[in-house]
Amino acid sequence: MAARLALRGWGCGHLDCEFGVRWSNGERCAVCEEVVADKFAARQRAQRLEQGPCPERGTRPGSASQS
C-alpha cells in the first residue's frame, strides 16, 4: 500500500485538505475559505488605516458617520 505524501499549505488541520481543496471529494475547504476571507478583511482594514482620514470630513474611509 503506497502512502500519500503532501505538503499542506494552509495548516487548517484537516489531513484531507491541500491548499483549500479536499482530496477526497474535490470540494473547497470551509475552514480555509474562512481564513482567506479573514485575511482579506484584515488587509482592507490595514489599507484604510494607512490612507488616513478624509481631508474634507476628517473621518476615516469606510466609516459609517457620513452626514
Descriptive report:
The structure is a single chain. By secondary structure, the chain is mainly alpha-helical. Helix content is 33%, strand content 6%. The protein has one helix and two strands, in the order ββα. The chain has a two-stranded antiparallel ribbon. β1 (17-18) and β2 (21-22) form a beta hairpin. The longest helix is centred in the middle third of the chain and has 22 residues, at 30-51.
Please give a handful of descriptors for the protein shown.
67 residues; mainly alpha; two-stranded antiparallel ribbon; 1 helix; 33% helix
pLDDT < 50 runs, ≥5 residues? none
Category by helix and strand content: mainly alpha
Calculate the mean pLDDT score and round it.
Answer: 78
Main sheet: strands, sense, barrel: 2 strands, antiparallel
Order of helices and strands: EEH
Fraction of residues in β-strands: 5-15%
How far the N terminus sits from the C terminus, by CA atoms, comes to 68 Å
Range of helix content: 25-40%
Task: For the largest sheet, list the strands in their spatial order.
Answer: 1-2
Q: Number of DSSP strands?
A: 2
Q: Counting H and I runs of at least 4 residues, what is the number of helices?
A: 1
Using only CA atoms, what is the Rg?
A: 20 Å
Shape: rod-shaped
